[in-house]
Amino acid sequence: MKILVIGGSYFFGRVFVMLAAKEHDVTVVNRGTCSVAELGAKQIKGDRKEEGVWKSIEDDYGCIVDFCAYEKGDIARVLENMPGRIRQYIFISTVDVYERGINGLKGEETPLETRPLPGEAGAYIAGKVALEREVREQCGKRGISCTVLRPAILYGPLNYAPRESVYIRLLARNRVLPRITDAAGSFQFVYVKDAAQAVLSCLLNPRAYGQAYNLCGEEVLTYDAFFRELGKASDVEAREIPLTAREAESQGLPLPFPLTEAETELYSNEKSKEELGLRYMDIGEGMARTYRAFRDI
């Protein structure tokens, strides 16, 4: 199958390209800051906001997989200007699109957030919500099947975000791990290879047409559980340093996960397991693989 990947240079997209290129004809559209040739994929350099980039792509594709649509209009610009035929559009969204403050696990039928939320996070969520609507409208007008994937917090090798890698460096170099004494929030991870496998499972899969899927592991974690799993994954004896959230932030330690019960939002992965046949990696094994990948960097 011919697949057009938008983004795909880093982390989630890169892992997907690595896997997909083993079986499919993959072309990546990105700004060219990172090569994908060694992954077995072709590359088209350009900014997605320029219409000319899409007008120049005349081939037919079985599927477009879009990892980097963030603002309203990003998907419409692609489909309005590409002359070739597209059979399916897979849009990578986020579990953050759901309405805040709903008790229990949020399934794919949960209403999306329509209220304006503050800051960069609010703008990010508003963009993803608008794009979920846009992909359905634009694909519907053109007879293209669409699928939306909503990953939870991604982790694993190649993660460039300052999350688990920061603490792996602390552990490997200094043999210390913090304990955030006033953290009461809970959260869910998804191992990056599991998320990439979910995309592969959706490719020209009629069962996935018109559907959205949450992608998240089985475990509900806390900061204590996260640090405990990281410690078990390591090959060193770590010293624990108790810190409040404010003390950790003052020392430059990232606290990227929900800190309070009020910030906690949890999600169901049942639909992805039942309809796509996904099996999520145990957090212990996933963290061990991640630790080994980052340990010597």
Strand order of the largest sheet: 3-2-1-4-5-6-10
Count of discrete domains:
2
Number of strands: 11
**Average residue pLDDT:** 95
Q: What is the 3D shape?
A: globular
| Number of helical regions | 10
| CATH architecture classification name of the largest domain | 3-Layer(aba) Sandwich
Structural class of the secondary elements? Answer: alpha/beta
* Level-1 CATH class name of the largest domain: Alpha Beta
Largest sheet: 7 strands, parallel
Helix content: 25-40%
CATH superfamily annotation of the largest domain: NAD(P)-binding Rossmann-like Domain
The low-pLDDT segments are: none
Radius of gyration: 20 Å
Task: Work out the strand percent.
Answer: 15-25%
What is the N-to-C order of secondary-structure elements (H for helix, E for strand)? EHEEHEHEHEEHEEHEHEHHH
Q: Report how far apart the termini are.
A: 35 Å
The CATH topology of the largest domain is Rossmann fold
